[in-house]
Design brief:
single chain; mainly alpha
Length: 382
């Protein structure tokens, strides 16, 4: 009898701890959602994080779209052009016809036959990764060409890299690459994704759960790696996830090291990156969300309209489609400061927030566990 009660107690406690972990996960997302409500969507990165977290940014980034109109995308960097395409798609506008400019065509024309990018001044893998994500968003015919190229760009150890006096293995970049390749085709690019997984796991610090390439852990790197792992379908290490949450404050911001004071302080860029990662972990890749929004926009714009018939005549003329104001934003730059203007009330997509179902389940499970423990103790006394 005692053995049975012990087993039941263990099961009850396991359920209680599981519900507790789920609640902590959802609570972290809610904190980031609350933070995102306070910021101005003044960059593609902010829009991507906002949408990844479960919100709709339509109508909340008009100033960004206006800024986009001032950008010369024929000379813009790959990162700025690609992120703008993704953000414009998320905002319900068409990047292939934005301010009388076809941003998609500009990007596609920079892709060579073998997937190499023309005049990539920064080198490394970052430009190819974000180009792939943008092409995936708009279902470009060049998606596979760039994905094939990216799958061959990793170092021998599976790491993706940035250029600084030669290739430098980078955890952040590797996380991005895993997400981009997974969206392009998880099974198709399994070899490259698996090698990338082996690399990032080799950098997991078993003592604190940080992904550390040698300079210490931080929220930004942790966010990128966990996001990539989740997008690729890997189970996240609990300790690694909790390490990310250790940088999150009650107001939803994430801390980063201030190199002037050498103190951890709330950082706008780390907060946006953290929010995006939590959003992807809970809701799926932001690239898939952007593709869905782009497809919807294209579908609506190609729906034929009923012709307008003049009274008393059989002659019809096509209805004139009203022009839509294109949306643009300045190219994505890591934000250094956070604006705390409260936006208008949001229409929020329903996500598992944990403040109702999970919390109640956790309480019930905990009570059940306590009850079973009490019975066990009572039986021992007999």
């Amino acid at each position: 009898m005692r053995r049975i009660l012990t087993v039941i107690t263990s099961i009850a406690l396991t359920f209680a701890l599981s519900f507790s972990a789920a609640f902590a996960s959802d609570d972290a997302l809610v904190k980031s959602q609350n933070y995102l409500k306070t910021i101005t969507l003044d960059s593609p990165d902010a829009v991507i994080a906002y949408e990844a977290a479960g919100f709709e940014a339509d109508g909340k980034a008009d100033s960004l779209l206006e800024n986009f109109k001032d950008v010369d995308y024929t000379t813009a960097s790959y990162g700025d052009l690609a992120k703008s395409i993704i953000a414009i798609s998320l905002l319900g506008d068409n990047p292939a016809d934005f301010n009388k400019t076809n941003l998609v065509e500009i990007l596609e024309n920079r892709v060579q036959a073998d997937g190499t990018l023309t005049d990539d001044k920064n080198g490394g893998c970052g430009a190819t990764i974000w180009t792939l994500m943008a092409l995936e968003t708009v279902n470009s015919d060049k998606t596979k060409t760039v994905a094939d190229k990216l799958s061959t760009m990793a170092m021998d150890n599976g790491a993706y890299w940035y250029e600084y006096q030669g290739p430098n293995a980078d955890l952040d970049t590797t996380g991005w690459a895993m997400e981009a390749l997974s969206v392009a085709g998880r099974s198709t690019y399994d070899a490259a994704i698996s090698k990338a997984y082996t690399f990032v796991q080799s950098k997991l610090n078993s003592k604190d759960g940080s992904y550390d390439i040698g300079w210490g852990g931080n929220a930004d790197t942790q966010s990128c790696v966990l996001e990539g792992l989740h997008a690729a379908g890997y189970k996240l290490d609990d300790q690694a996830y909790n390490y990310l949450l250790s940088y999150q404050n009650e107001d939803g911001t994430f801390n980063a090291l201030n190199y002037n004071t050498y103190q951890l302080e709330p950082n706008a860029y780390a907060s946006v990156e953290g929010a995006r990662a939590l959003g992807v972990i809970n809701n799926g890749s932001f690239v898939l969300k952007a593709r869905k929004d782009y497809t919807k926009t294209i579908s609506n714009s190609t729906t034929p309209e009923k012709p307008e018939t003049k009274p008393g005549t059989t002659t019809t003329k096509p209805a004139v489609k009203p022009e839509t104001t294109p949306s643009t934003t300045k190219p994505a730059v890591k934000p250094e400061t956070t604006t705390t203007t409260e936006p208008k009330k949001e229409t929020v997509k329903k996500v598992n927030t944990g403040d109702n179902t999970n919390a109640m389940a956790y309480v019930v499970a905990a009570i059940a566990a306590i009850g079973v423990i009490a019975l066990t103790i009572k039986s021992k006394k007999k």
